[in-house]
Amino acid sequence: MTTTRIIEIECQRFNPQTDSEPHFQSYQVPFSEEMSVLQGLQYIKDHLDGSLTFRWSCRMAICGSCGSMVNGVPQLSCHTFLRDYFPDKVRIEPLNHFPVLRDLAIDQTDFLAKLESVKPYLIPDTEKTPAQGTYLQTPQQMDEYYQYSECINCLLCYAACPQYGLNKEFTGPAALALLHRYNADSRDAGSAERMEVINGENGVWGCTLVSYCSEVCPKGVDPARAINQNKINSTKDYFLRFLQPRGGK
Amino acid sequence: MIRRSNKPVFWSLFGAGGMVSALIGPMLVFVTGIAVPLGFLLPHDALRYERMLALAHNPAGKLALAVVISLFLFHGCHRFYHCLHDFGIHVTAGMKAACHGFAAAGTALAVYLLLVIGF
Amino acid sequence: MPAPNLLNRYTRPMEGWWRRNPFYLWYMLREASCVFIIAYALVLLCGLYRLSQGEAAFNGWLAALATPRSIAFHGITAMMVLYHAWTWFKVMPKTLPFIHIGGKRMPDAAIVTSGLAAAVVLSALLFVLVWSGRS
């Protein structure tokens, strides 16, 4: 079955050299049953308008490059199919809450700085040499962090988060989920260093549990959970420090 | 050094109030605001003066009244300033203090009244 | 050669963001429940004040509760508090660490159900407590 139909794709356009505000441009795109929204964009670029700018790489929901707003919902365009929108039109915009560089390409510089701030790498208590063997972990210990390690940094959760939109200082869903991914890892001993980020006004306390981040995550990471269970950890940390001896960490 | 937020204090009160209001809030509003005034399912005199006075005299009753009023206020006021923020209003430290102060004042008044009513 | 101005960025304003997606509208409804919870606490506080003033004053408060305006207010409040309760338990798993029972992770649905069940049981108890005092 390779019946070809025509769908209208409406893209947000923005040229930083000539435009002060974006506008929409419509394209009539022939599509078949198995075509993703990303393939629709590629058709436009190849056949209709070579100036359309968008990011993509893997076409299989693992690289996290092709996130965009599809009919107002943050989606990976490779993970979304034109057939599900036909006969209505599809409106594609760059991810919400980020500065737009050009057309559908956004500037993720801010996120990269936040990602770095949470130290997203294992900080072991004592470094082992290969000769000393591997770090052992039980399946249950792995279960504590595994889903949070599935994050592909696609930023759909930031586009879903009004708190990030309202306050750009907020560390945000993916970075805090990755923070928790390392804190929850039995091989890691860096929690104390990351606690400072959690405890700040723009750490977990910037979240109001809208929980749309978890709804739109294409990898089932559930950032809202990572953030909100750390509100309890931050609260414990806040009160328990009064019980600790002076000078203790 | 990132400054530690004081949210743990107010979030704990918000959470406690949210939990109490989620557990019994709907029934409490139904009983005092609808069922008893209308005499629907419950008799008109279920909240009569002597009975409510006995409740307010009883130490456990005092505690229950104070907890409900205080935690509902702290829960609501904490969420309220987040609401302001959501509507794009810049919430200053003074506005936060006013919200929490309002809840604290309500709590103080409730405790004072319960003491005035006596044991 | 002058560099082209590629640093020009466009950021969409946040005005009216809650109207962009029904998910946000439901969120705002949940947050708006706080106004009704505050108002209800003040109604109770007022009742406590009238109680401290004696029987006549307290009966005045009871009479005020029976006015159509008050009934309407409490009707809306009951709905809003009910919605608050529903959302409260629905997001409860997100505020908890994973709970392991017998080596298995407790499913989110079980956490939500236990929360709702606790609310039903306690509400029933409250109702019986009030009902038992009829003269």
Lay out the secondary structure.
The complex is a heterotrimer of chains A (249), B (119) and C (135).
Chain A: E1 5-13, E2 23-31, H1 37-48, E3 67-70, E4 73-76, E5 90-93, E6 100-102, E7 105-106, H2 109-117, H3 139-143, H4 156-160, H5 162-166, H6 173-183, H7 191-199, H8 212-216, H9 223-240
Parallel strand pairs in A: 1-5
Antiparallel strand pairs in A: 1-2, 3-4, 3-5, 6-7
Helix pairs in contact in A: 2-6, 6-9
Chain B: H1 7-38, H2 49-57, H3 59-86, H4 93-117
Chain C: H1 22-53, H2 55-65, H3 68-90, E1 100-101, E2 104-105, H4 108-131
Q: Please, could you describe this protein's structure?
A:
- The complex is a heterotrimer of chains A (249), B (119) and C (135).
- With 249 residues, chain A is an alpha+beta fold.
- In chain A, 32% of the residues lie in helices and 14% in strands.
- Chain A has two domains: 5-106, Ubiquitin-like (UB roll) (Roll); 109-243, Alpha-helical ferredoxin (Fumarate Reductase Iron-sulfur Protein, Chain B, domain 2).
- Chain A has helices spanning 37-48, 109-117, 139-143, 156-160, 162-166, 173-183, 191-199, 212-216, 223-240, and strands at residues 5-13, 23-31, 67-70, 73-76, 90-93, 100-102, 105-106.
- In chain A, strand 6 and strand 7 (105-106) form a beta hairpin.
- In chain A, helix 2 (109-117) runs parallel beside helix 6 and helix 6 packs across helix 9.
- Chain A is elongated, with a radius of gyration of 21 Å.
- The model of chain A has no long low-confidence stretch (mean pLDDT 95).
- With 119 residues, chain B is an all-alpha fold.
- Chain B has helices at residues 7-38, 49-57, 59-86, 93-117.
- In chain B, helix 1 (7-38) crosses helix 3 (59-86).
- Chain C has 135 residues and is mainly alpha-helical.
- Chain C is 67% helix and 3% strand.
- A two-stranded antiparallel sheet of chain C has the order 1-2.
- In chain C, helix 1 runs antiparallel to helix 2 and helix 1 packs across helix 3.
- The radius of gyration of chain C is 24 Å and the shape is flat.
- Chains in contact: A-B, A-C, B-C.
- The interface between A and C is medium-sized, with 36 and 28 residues.
